[in-house]
Specification:
Layout lengths: L5 H14 L8 H7 L43 H8 L17 H14 L12 H10 L5 H14 L3 H6 L2 H8 L5 H19 L7 H4 L7 H11 L9 H9 L8 H8 L8 H14 L27
Helix pairs in contact: 5-6, 5-11, 8-9, 12-14
Bound molecules: iron/sulfur cluster (SF4).
Iron/sulfur cluster (SF4) binds next to helix 12.
C-alpha cells in the first residue's frame, strides 16, 4: 500500500476520529508523542538528522540502538558513491585494473590461431569489390550462408553499381527479403551505389576514409572490403571478435571502434585481416558465447579467461 505523507495523514485524522468514536480516549500527551516531527523542505529533520524528503523518521523500537546514517564522504562524486555502495562481489569499475597485453603473448596467440585455422578466409562469396561490399551490407543480422544463397541471383540481375542504384526499392526488397531487415538493406544498397556512381565512377574506393563516407557503410564493412577485396589490412570487429578479445585479455573496451583501436597497436598490421577471421572462427567453434569450451581450447595456457564464469 502506498505510504501517506504526514500532511495527508493529518488531513485524514478528523475522519478517523469520527469513525473511531468508540475507541478509548487518547490523552493529549500520547497524541503529541505519536505525531511526526516536522521536516523542512531540504530534508533536514527538525532534530538535525537527515530525513529523505516526503518521509518521516523511521520508527525505532524503544531502547534500541540509535540508527546512524552514513553521510557521503566530502568531495565524493555520485559515481564513486555508487561504486562504494554496490553489492559486495558485484562488478565495479573501481575494482578493475587492465594491463596492456604482453606482445610475446599476443604473438603466441596469433601463431596458435594460425595453426588452428590455416584456411581462414572471408565466408562471403564474391568476385569483385562491389559484390563483397553489397554482400557485407546484406550480412548484417544474417548468416553468411543465407547471403551466399541470395547474392548470385542479385548480381546476375544487377551486375554493377549503376544497375543497383537504379533498381526500384520494392523490386530490390523482393530479391533480398530472405536476408532480413530487407527494407533498410535495400535502401542502403541503392544509396551506397548512387554514391559510388556519383563520386567514384561506379568503383569501390580503396581507402577507409572514402569507404566510410558512403551511405550505409561503417568501419566494419569498410575493413571487410579493404582486407578481403584489396588485401589492405583491416581489423574487423564483430560480436565474436569483441567477446574473444575480451576473454583473452586483449582489450577492456566495449565499443567496436575503441576495440579496433586498442587491438591495432598489439596485433602486427600484416595480420589484422586474418586475426579477425581467426577470432570469428574461434568464437563460433570453441570460445562460444554461452559456455566456452576451454577444456579443448588450444589457447588455454595463454588465456586469462576474463569474465568467464562457466565453461566446459
Ligand atoms: S581458454 Fe576459454 S575463454 Fe580463453 S579463448 Fe579458449 S575458450 Fe575462450
Amino acid at each position: 500500500m502506498a505510504r501517506k505523507s504526514p500532511r495527508s495523514r493529518r488531513k485524514a485524522a478528523p475522519a478517523a476520529r469520527t469513525r473511531g468514536a468508540l475507541r478509548a480516549p487518547v490523552s493529549p500527551r500520547k497524541r503529541t508523542r505519536k505525531r511526526a516531527a516536522p521536516t523542512t523542505t531540504n530534508g533536514v529533520h527538525a532534530s538535525g538528522t537527515l530525513t529523505p524528503p516526503g518521509r518521516t523518521k523511521p520508527a525505532r523500537a524503544r531502547g534500541s540502538a540509535p540508527v546512524t546514517r552514513r553521510r557521503p564522504a566530502p568531495g565524493a562524486t555520485p559515481s564513486a558513491r555508487k561504486a562504494r555502495t554496490s553489492k559486495r562481489g558485484a562488478w565495479s569499475r573501481a575494482d578493475t585494473s587492465f594491463a596492456l597485453p604482453d606482445p610475446a603473448r599476443v604473438a603466441t596467440i596469433c601463431d596458435i590461431l594460425e595453426r588452428t585455422y590455416p584456411d581462414a578466409k572471408c565466408a562471403l562469396t564474391f568476385e569483385t569489390p562491389l559484390q563483397l561490399l553489397i554482400a557485407t551490407i546484406l550480412s548484417a543480422q544474417c548468416t553468411d550462408v543465407r547471403v551466399n544463397m541470395v547474392t548470385p541471383g542479385l548480381f546476375e540481375s544487377y551486375p554493377d553499381a549503376w544497375a543497383l542504384a537504379a533498381v526500384p526499392q520494392e523490386e530490390l526488397e523482393a530479391v533480398i527479403r530472405s536476408t532480413g531487415f530487407f527494407r533498410n538493406k535495400a535502401r542502403a544498397i541503392r544509396e551506397c551505389c548512387a554514391d559510388l556512381v556519383a563520386k567514384h565512377g561506379g568503383d569501390v574506393p580503396r581507402t577507409l576514409e572514402d569507404l566510410i563516407l558512403l551511405r550505409g557503410v561503417g568501419r566494419k564493412t569498410a575493413n571487410v572490403v579493404l582486407g578481403n577485396a584489396y588485401r589492405i589490412p583491416g581489423l574487423v570487429v564483430d560480436t565474436h571478435v569483441t567477446r574473444v578479445s575480451h576473454r583473452l585479455g586483449l582489450t577492456e573496451e566495449t565499443d567496436a571502434v575503441k576495440i579496433e583501436f586498442s587491438l591495432m597497436p598489439i596485433v602486427p598490421r600484416k595480420r589484422w585481416t586474418l586475426f579477425s577471421h581467426w577470432l570469428i572462427l574461434h568464437g563460433r567453434a570453441i570460445c562460444v558465447a554461452r559456455k566456452p569450451r576451454c577444456s579443448v581450447c588450444p589457447l588455454i595456457p595463454h588465456c586469462p579467461r576474463c569474465g568467464v564464469t562457466i565453461s566446459e
